[in-house]
Amino acid sequence: MPEINPTRPAPFATLSMAQKEALYEQFAEFFSDGKRQLFDRLAPLRTRHLCIVLEDIFQSHNASAVLRSCDCFGVQDVHVVEQHNPFNPAGDVAVGSAKWVDWHRHSTTADAYKALKDKGYRIVATLPHERDQMITDLDISQPTALVFGTELTGLSQQAIDLADAYVKIPMYGFTESFNISVCAALSLFSLTQRMRDDSRIDWQLNREELLDLKLHWALQVVKEGDAVMKKLIEGLAD
């Protein structure tokens, strides 16, 4: 899975749009037409209008299950806070989704919230709260980040205090909460369906974002992709 690290930008990050297009055409020679058609079909269905924040998740199967749900629902970005627990997705649960979803590492919850708010996201904590609302009633007209806490203790007090809104999922049984991965999947099902059905929400990636995404994906399927791409980029400069 491509970690999006501002200190280590992708090799194509500084290229112009025309150069990226030329690079993709050349790079596509190194993978199958079927894979290219799959990228062309799926990339326009991805979104960054919604994203997930995981605060100190420590069970690898939960982290992996959330990644799998994000991939299935077309949510491209997962932000992980590793203040106490490292993010460690297990490949057998992720079932390949780790290649297709971007993740962003943050050392503290405050850092993650600031980075998201600087990009225009509304921070929504998932927990019962005196000011909560049902997930089905949440306003998603602006970019929205859903925050999920660690398995045993839930969200930290800082994550709760700094959030902009609070949501819960309706429950009608004796058990007081869903497993975190189930909660994330149910939330994404509800919100992505409403997002895609609302013509007022501009949820799709723009042309350059689509191209960047396909270049990132291509790096996951080409053997020694970084080295191949760097050589192609050098050729563009000649």
Provide a compact summary of the structure.
By secondary structure, the chain is an alpha/beta fold.
3D architecture notes:
The structure is a single chain. The chain is α/β, with parallel strands linked by helices. The protein has a domain at 47-197: SPOUT methyltransferase, trefoil knot domain (Alpha/beta knot, 3-Layer(aba) Sandwich). The protein is 42% helix and 14% strand. It has 9 helices and 7 strands, in the order ααβαβαβαβββαβααα. The protein has a 7-stranded parallel beta sheet with strand order 3-2-1-6-4-7-5, sandwiched between helices. Strand 2 (77-81), helix 4 and strand 3 form a beta-alpha-beta unit. The longest helix has 18 residues, at 180-197. It is elongated. The protein starts with 16 loop residues before the first helix and ends with a helix. The mean pLDDT is 89.
Quaternary state reads single chain
Strand order of the largest sheet: 3-2-1-6-4-7-5
- Overall pLDDT level: 89
**Tell me, what is the CATH class of the domain at 47-197?**
Alpha Beta
How much strand content do the residues show?
A: 5-15%
CATH topology of the domain at 47-197: Alpha/beta knot
Classification by helices and strands = alpha/beta
**Assigned CATH architecture of the domain at 47-197:** 3-Layer(aba) Sandwich
Shape call:
elongated
CATH superfamily of the domain at 47-197: SPOUT methyltransferase, trefoil knot domain
Q: Stretches where pLDDT falls below 50 for ≥5 residues?
A: none
Distance between the termini: 31 Å
What Rg, in angstroms, do the CA atoms define?
Answer: 19 Å
